[in-house]
Amino acid sequence: MHSLPHDHTGARIKRLRLERHLTQTALADLAGISASLLTKLERRERPATPYVTACLARALRVDVATITGQPYKTELRADQLDVLIRPIREALDVHDLGVDPEISPRPHQLLADDAEGFLVAVRAGEIKQTATQLPSVIQEATTAAHAAPSREAWLLLASLYRTAYDVASKLGFYDLATIALARMDWAAQRASDAVVGGIYHYMRSLTYLRDGEYRTGERLVTLGLQTLAQADPSREREVVTGQLHLGAAVMAARSKDGARADRHLDEAERISSETGEAVDVHWLAFGPTNVAVHRVSVLAELDEYGQAAQTGRGVTIPQGWPLSRRSHHFAELARAQMWTGDLDDSFQNLLKARKAAPQQARYHQTVRETYAGLEAARRQLPDSFLSYGSWLGG
User: 300-353 pLDDT, tens per residue?
Assistant: First the structure.
């Protein structure tokens, strides 16, 4: 008995393959994977890793989201989140229209407090609350920036656009996330802020990581580092530099270049030894803990699941670390444990991922694929396991 929807990743892969009149052998050859693995994916006997998903997307000439089925519209509708996306899209669309005569923006500090509150809320996993309030504040800040242009006004707007990216990407609306990033860059350029420009390049590189375009992602990391070199020396600059190296490490690992991934991790670790825990610096959660968490991710991307699981068990998450990052780490650890056959511990970490940030976990692809792998591996499914699947599938 399956508790996830019938239209799973394997079913979508098979449907796309048949639409293109490809045999399993032909598609496997195009994707550079084994035909036996493709057969198991389509039969839902194995979950798809991000690397394999990206390979298949390129071979089928579709976006990764087409294969993963994102955004998960049925669940979004059940959670009343789908209706919150259009207002965000509309708020992003008016970026260059100047002052809206029907809007009287509040003082800058009140808007800045809201922007900071959104960054904190998203990292606490409060996606719905943020998505509800964000559009009106973006429109206020847009009018304020056009009415009285200043570095502070444009940076405030860039921060709000970043939050729009966070919300859209966490809910699987990657086209909207790309638009939000373009708006962030637009505002950052008007503020002439190299550090925010570096953050923009980091986030943009993640969109290419998700799509399996690793070479482009690496070029963006390089561009981000070059942009940061223009900023005055500061802890803020070092934090963003370190975060770029962490993103580059995962990028290198997913392209199966372990040596390059280690070099980026080592550089990030060196920087973190100087910055210490810097969770609240642009809310990137950079620091020794984030480096340790990324080591687990890198090992998993290199298919070294046993070492990833062992390393992950040794990571201590400090008090006050963002719940969204905590949830992501538990999901990564669960994936590694699933692949090593440690099914009970894997499921326990899926439960931890949900407890830390339920709205994020429900729409997290790693959570869903790991659950599918556990479901395929277990013949006897306890009620708690089936209940988790029902929660994921709406």
Answer: 999 999 999 999 999 999 998 999 999 999 999 999 999 999 999 999 999 999
Cβ atoms < 10 Å from Cβ of 336:
28
Instruction: Express each pLDDT in 151-187 by its tens digit.
Output: 999 999 999 999 999 999 999 999 999 999 999 999 9
- Ranges assigned E (strand) in the chain: none
Element (H, E) at 126: none
Alpha carbon distance 202, 196 (integer Å): 10
Tokens representing 145 are 């920036």
Which residue do the tokens 């002052």 mark? Answer: 99
Residues carrying CATH 1.10.260.40, the chain: 1-69
List 286's β-bridge partners, or say none: 278
Specify the CATH number of the domain 1-69.
1.10.260.40
Q: What is the spatial distance between Cα 193 and Cα 138, in angstroms, rounded to a whole number?
A: 19
SS3 53: helix
| Polymer length in residues for the chain | 394
User: What Rg, from alpha-carbon coordinates, does the chain have?
Assistant: 21
